[in-house]
Amino acid sequence: MKTKELDFILQEGEGLKIEFKESVKNIDKEMVAMANTEGGRIFLGVSDDNKIKGINTTNKLKSQIYDSANNCDPKIKIRLEELNKVLIIHVFEGNNKPYKCSSGFYIRQGPNSQKLGRDEIFDFAISEGKIKFDAQLNKKFNFPKDFDEKKLDEFLRLTKIKKNLDIKNTLLNLGAAAKQDGKFNLNNAGALFFSEEPSKFFMTSKIICVNYQTNEKLNILDKKIFDDGIINNIQEAINYVKKHINVEYIIKKLEREEKLQYPEEAIREAIVNAIMHRDYLDQSEDLLVEVFRNRLAISNPGGLVKGLSPEEFGKKSRTRNSFIANLLLRTEYVEKLGTGINRIRQAMKKAKLPDPVFKYNTSFSIELYDKTQTEKVTEKVTEKVTEKVTENQKKILELMQSNPHIAIKEMSTKIGISEKNIKENISKLKQKGLLKRIGPAKGGHWKVLR
After folding, report:
1. Burial (0-12, 13-18, 19+ Cβ within 10 Å), 170
2. What's the pTM?
3. pLDDT digits (tens, 9 = 90+) for 269-282
4. Is residue 364 a contact partner of residue 277, using CB atoms and an 8 Å limit?
5. Is 210 helix (H, G, I), strand (E, B) or coil?
6. Which residue in 287, 269, 270 sits closest to 278, CA to CA?
7. Euclidean distance between CA atoms 406 and 409, whole angstroms
């Protein structure tokens, strides 16, 4: 760090990743808070009013700081730097959260280090994937009063499992329940599948299905809320979509074939994916199935599962709710874990429809477009770029119009030219004023300019 940067930080003051301290008192608390959040820097020898007081940096002081970091559980990775009588402690964000010190667990909230209470620690551990929501025992579930045996029977029918055991042992062997201190309890996954009334235990157990008159969220023609257990919710949502999308009838000799607006496999996989990977602790949004005139949108709270990068999406699989996933894997709704995204892509490709559009931040959504979108994209691009671009550039624009989040590697595969040529063509399209990149390379999207 240079003096100019230090001066800027002193003007800026304390924040999420900046802490000023005059001494090493409670230094472990600040390190834990930063390691549990996004990392940061602690400036020793600076007062709360942003003035350099200075600190005598000795080997003994450095050793004391390193000992404080090593005594945290787990150990915290730090680096020390000296500048202008200030000792800067670089605290790295931890990859094994949550961290704690002798006085407890802390996280960074703005410019302050906030101590976590018992429930907050539990929620934090869940958010970091240390404790799985669906694996937790549901102590509020009163068995057998809240249990719906018909739902278990239907599940066993779908999985072709014979009912050889009594109900408790069946649920234990399915992983839907466990015994703790000799007491039988369903876990959250079991309650979501087999509860007589899921909403009694979860605000997030329902699916909301909406049918719109146009391609905008304006006039609602129909709306249904399904909240009758995971299996029933899946089937009801699929039936809802099939009821409200277009059906084309193709006559082949004496047989009539139905062709849905979107492939049934893609519909099923998208709905199952949303239920399987929903963040059931997030009550700010609902799981939505929205039918528009030219597209189907399915969204759920919870972005990419922690530990899965955007580059790995569709290539690697991580499961947010492994107990729910394991139960669904036994049914006809899931053929193999980790294949759902590619099955959606293949189903849309086989039906000669546009590539599905996947969006993720704090939530996750899948958008399926019908053939009118392909026709619309082709017409727009053709009208706009006639005599202005090459054939490959036209294909690039069509792919981007259909899927604004498409990657260069995917375009290279689809068009059949190298990634280098894709990049060169993109540069030329930008120069011609036909294309713009919105946002960063990771997480941004393409915009075909009109």
Report:
1. middle
2. 0.63
3. 999 999 999 999 88
4. yes
5. strand
6. 287
7. 9
From 334, 368, 402, give the residue that closes a domain: 368
Residues 228 and 166 placed together within one structural domain of the fold: no
**247 and 348 share one domain:** yes
204 is written with which tokens? 């997030």
Based on the structure, what is the number of domains in the chain?
A: 4
Say whether both 363 and 409 belong to one domain: no
End-of-domain residue from the set 127, 148, 170? 127
How far from 397 is each of 349, 370, 407, 429, CA to CA, in Å? 18, 18, 13, 9
Range of the domain at 35: 3-127
Which letter does DSSP use for residue 254 in this model?
T
Bigger pLDDT: 128 or 279? 279
Dist CA 435 CA 433 (whole Å): 6
Whether the CB-CB separation of 172 and 178 falls below 8 Å is answered with yes
Structure-token pair, residue 170: 């069946």
189, 223: one domain? no
Dist CA 102 CA 114 (whole Å): 15
The beta strand positions in 173-268, using DSSP E, are 177-180, 183-186, 207-212, 220-226, 247-252, 255-260
